[in-house]
Amino acid sequence: AQPLLRVSGLRKHFRFKDGWLGSRQQVRAVDGLSFEVLKGETLGIVGESGCGKSTTARLITGMMQADAGEISLDGETFWQPGKKISAEARRAVQMVFQDSHSSLNPRMSVVDTLAFGLLAHGIDRAVAVDYAGRLMDAVGMPATEFADRYPIELSGGQRQRINIARAIALRPRLLLLDEPVSALDKSVEAQVLNLLVELRESLGLTYIFISHDLNVVRYISDRVVVMYLGQIVESAPSDTLFSSAAHPYTRALLASKPSPDPREKIAAPPLTGDPPDPINPPRHCRFHTRCAFAEGVCSAKTPHLQAKPGSHPDHRVACWIHVPDSGHSLAAGGKETTS
Ligand code: SF4
Ligand code: MG
């Protein structure tokens, strides 16, 4: 498959003045992100809160402007510094958020909510209402039953279905789903995930699925990107990532994941403490302050994302352990393994 979305060198730092001396600070929310999303696939993005997942989504939808980098959609420049994304282009990328409550207007009925965006695009009211009914059918909420209801009369799962219907109304190419099932009960979660899978197939959509829940990401994603403090530390096809994660951070995340099958538990030192302050992230390998395998090289030289030797060709990791002759004692070809 061809890439639908290509993100290169994306960067977003939030600058602010801190304290009475007014010293300048910056939060490196997204710090040099490059990845691709292939047509028709679901790319999962995982990481702890504050790793830059949601900022990444906002930069891609154009809700927020990046400082540097480039985004292309279907081979054409979608965003670059100084370029404003046209309304036409923006339609191609839609977003669904976690909080289905605050994203729906409590004073608008379901049919009005769905027809509203279409009216704004100059579509005739009768046509918009008819189309809204078909959208409701598509997300499993028949218009005859739900058209005139208000958000307060719907369950969390039903509200999220309406948000999904609204997101697909303008026939986007790419949906960014930011923790779309995190607020739902487990039983409802499965139904909404299945709906998303069906819609992806029937409408030819491509997804970016952001979540801290590794079980959910594993279920829905074809490939997964792991973020830590604004950077990608590992990326791989989903099966490869969940069976042979290579980065100590990914392994720690997986080791602390509640798993339905204890045999698949990955042996790794569990993650301790909170992520460091993104205002002053640790230099070079940003994970070195929490990594059980940190050595001198880790805080002296920056490990870049590169192919993991001997793994799937699309498995990439940013860790000195996986770079031969890097100076890390666990690296294949390193001093301690060859002498
Ligand atoms: Fe740990 Fe070093 Fe690898 Fe960073 S580069 S994850 S500190 S072993
Ligand atoms: Mg978030």
From TrEMBL:
It is an enzyme of class 7 (translocase). One of its GO terms (cellular component) is plasma membrane. Residues 5-254 form the ABC transporter domain. Its EC number is 7.4.2.10. It catalyses: glutathione(out) + ATP + H2O = glutathione(in) + ADP + phosphate + H(+). Keywords: ATP-binding, Cell inner membrane, Cell membrane, Hydrolase, Membrane, Nucleotide-binding, Repeat, Translocase, Transport. It comes from the Bacteria. GO terms for molecular function: ATP binding; ATP hydrolysis activity. It is found in: Cell inner membrane. One of its GO terms (biological process) is peptide transport. Gene3D superfamilies: P-loop containing nucleotide triphosphate hydrolases. It is a peripheral membrane protein. Coiled coil: none annotated. Residues 255-279 are annotated as: Disordered. InterPro entries: AAA+_ATPase, ABC_transp_ATP-bind, ABC_transporter-like_ATP-bd, ABC_transporter-like_CS, Oligopep_ABC_C, P-loop_NTPase. PANTHER family: GLUTATHIONE IMPORT ATP-BINDING PROTEIN GSIA, TRANSPORT ATP-BINDING PROTEIN. Belongs to the ABC transporter superfamily. Glutathione importer (TC 3.A.1.5.11) family. Part of the ABC transporter complex GsiABCD involved in glutathione import. Responsible for energy coupling to the transport system. The complex is composed of two ATP-binding proteins (GsiA), two transmembrane proteins (GsiC and GsiD) and a solute-binding protein (GsiB). This is Glutathione import ATP-binding protein GsiA. It comes from Sodalis ligni.
